[in-house]
Amino acid sequence: MSKQVQEVETIFCHATGDDYLVVVERDGQRLFRAKLGLSETSAGPRPAKFRLKQGSSEEPRQPDEFVELARRAGRIRISEQTSSEKRRELREMLEGYQLEDKTKAVRTCRYCASAGRYSPITTETAVKDDNDWICRDCARQELERQLTYSGSGEVTGAAKERLEDLMLEVQDLERIVNLLQGQLDPDLTKFDTISATTDEVDPVRVDSLNLHPGLQNLLEDRFETLLPVQSLAVDHGLFDGDDQMVVSATATGKTLVGEMTGIDRVLNGKGKMLFLVPLVALANQKYEDFQDEYGHLVDVSIRVGASRISDNGNQFDPNADVIVGTYEGIDHALRTGKDMGDIGTVVIDEVHTLKEEERGHRLDGLISRLKYTCEQRAKRRDDYGGAQWVYLSATVGNPEQLATALESKLIEFEERPVPIERHVTFADGQEKVRIENKLVKREFDTESSKGYRGQTIIFTNSRRRCHEISRKLDYSAAPYHAGLDYKRRKKVERQFGEQELSAVVTTAALAAGVDFPASQVVFDSLAMGIEWLSVQEFHQMLGRAGRPDYHDKGTVYVLVEPDCSYHNSMEMTEDEVAFKLLKGDMESVMTHYDEAAAVEETLANVTVGGRAAKSLNDRMLGDVPTKHAIGKLLEYDFIDGFEPTPLGQVVTQHFLDPGEAFALLDGIRKDAHPYELIADLELREDDL
């Protein structure tokens, strides 16, 4: 004891009932704890008992030992959490021993004090807990306890760090707990702002373009100058026939780049235009846009889908001046040998689809086959110069590499027309709908400086959930997904455009390019089906928030359910995924091939190119193991030499992979009903 007395630095006193807890420290380390009791004497309060605490037991010591400790201590601190009456009693006792000069009341963490730890706090370091203040370490522990108590599931990784950082930033535990209960405190939900940016580009005057008179007059009626990304494309050879890859944010006008050169080439007799998109809904929308805007100048047709049951032409006229199609629709035309004539321009919208696991290889193969078809046509027709290619995307992580691989000139424009505020909050599946309702109402009740009410796109992961959410919103809303018929989807698009709907609830699968001028995007889920979104898909979706002609800013809300996943095959939880997406870099766009994809594309290339199949494989972006694929095609009896067998023709025309083809053959041999065969195929796809 005497050695400890010699080296005492701090004595900390905190009232516990009638007595005081005494903590003795040296160099910030606790030496021991003790219990001090005072009694009233004629000279004032004096130590009456002093007991050293050792675990759950107490060792009685002489009360005068406390006085000796106090005299040797460098400082004596009294917790402000001690009542004023008890502080006055303790001070009076210390003054009786002339120790008042080294005595001071300090604010301390009440949890630490109760546990026998001296933990002084300041207004800069403390966290408010009800009407009291606690230290940061105890605040973290209390937050974790509250997370468990609230039933929020296990908040992991970056989400937990985010909550802790917010708590330390605002210094208020209750506000964080309220956030977990669905309160939308904008100071807490706001994650960041993607600023509006404007690159300096000299605008090209429309009257200087010298296009075909029909198109020239149409554009002059609509604009005086081109938008920056359009001006960049023109300045870098768009109307000289140069292939271009245009990468620019949503709503910056990149689509018109492809339209201008395509329509001009059509009108000048340089071949028809193909405008290709990944989804039927987008093709239908684009087909109508072309009809409305250019229908008086050119004939427009549409080619979508490739049904396994029948080949529905969908108003397809291969002799039309402009053909709007899905990737699979045009690829089906190639695989079945349809002659589309002289193709002068090919516009590939959403070219980042090349990276998708299920569809990327088909777009890669389509580009190769279409280029081959155009080149063969050019060889036969000396007066036909081949096609100009324009690739469009808002989200590419490796634009230079991809542009080089596609043998095109990169036109990259970094402008963000309006700022986007990104918010994150936490809620379970049922609580999410209540929050979404609040967000939709708040947005629709707000009018921009341009006179438009705020409207919302809610992205979720299933068609059923689309209907569930839209039914529960107080303001007018509608589901929108590929399961709706064409007439219903067009009605929703019209109602949204006329501001009759406060919100549409749609699946992530329809994120690309659907033209809803929304000011707000809400993520009800961060999954597409049973797969987590990629950073690229996430940016594509949030980029729908805010249009320069409608809104002053875009707003994005990510609603995160801690410890949630949508299928047992999903490795991460939604709270982990959320911050990976918010902080992540855009993925590179490149196509990867497994055996099934290599076999499918090689078979399609044999069907279209015959002996040229190897050169078609070689020009594709992905590394296709051609020899192995051809060996498998021979083994499966899909080809005979460099010609598809009847079985191979069926497989390639209906986009079957080898496993699906074998499932069909096996079913046919067993006299299975056709419905059973189709059901088996769908089940196989669900298992992928």
Automatic annotation (TrEMBL):
<dbReference type="InterPro" id="IPR027417">
    <property type="entry name" value="P-loop_NTPase"/>
</dbReference>
<dbReference type="GO" id="GO:0140097">
    <property type="term" value="F:catalytic activity, acting on DNA"/>
</dbReference>
<dbReference type="Pfam" id="PF00270">
    <property type="entry name" value="DEAD"/>
</dbReference>
<feature type="domain" description="Helicase ATP-binding">
    <location>
        <begin position="235"/>
        <end position="414"/>
    </location>
</feature>
<dbReference type="InterPro" id="IPR050474">
    <property type="entry name" value="Hel308_SKI2-like"/>
</dbReference>
<keyword id="KW-0175">Coiled coil</keyword>
<dbReference type="GO" id="GO:0005524">
    <property type="term" value="F:ATP binding"/>
</dbReference>
<keyword id="KW-0347">Helicase</keyword>
<protein>
    <submittedName>
        <fullName>DEAD/DEAH box helicase</fullName>
    </submittedName>
</protein>
<keyword id="KW-0547">Nucleotide-binding</keyword>
<feature type="domain" description="Helicase C-terminal">
    <location>
        <begin position="434"/>
        <end position="590"/>
    </location>
</feature>
<feature type="coiled-coil region">
    <location>
        <begin position="156"/>
        <end position="183"/>
    </location>
</feature>
<keyword id="KW-0067">ATP-binding</keyword>
<dbReference type="Pfam" id="PF00271">
    <property type="entry name" value="Helicase_C"/>
</dbReference>
<dbReference type="InterPro" id="IPR011545">
    <property type="entry name" value="DEAD/DEAH_box_helicase_dom"/>
</dbReference>
<keyword id="KW-0378">Hydrolase</keyword>
<feature type="region of interest" description="Disordered">
    <location>
        <begin position="44"/>
        <end position="63"/>
    </location>
</feature>
<dbReference type="InterPro" id="IPR014001">
    <property type="entry name" value="Helicase_ATP-bd"/>
</dbReference>
<dbReference type="GO" id="GO:0016787">
    <property type="term" value="F:hydrolase activity"/>
</dbReference>
<dbReference type="GO" id="GO:0004386">
    <property type="term" value="F:helicase activity"/>
</dbReference>
<dbReference type="InterPro" id="IPR001650">
    <property type="entry name" value="Helicase_C-like"/>
</dbReference>
<dbReference type="GO" id="GO:0003676">
    <property type="term" value="F:nucleic acid binding"/>
</dbReference>
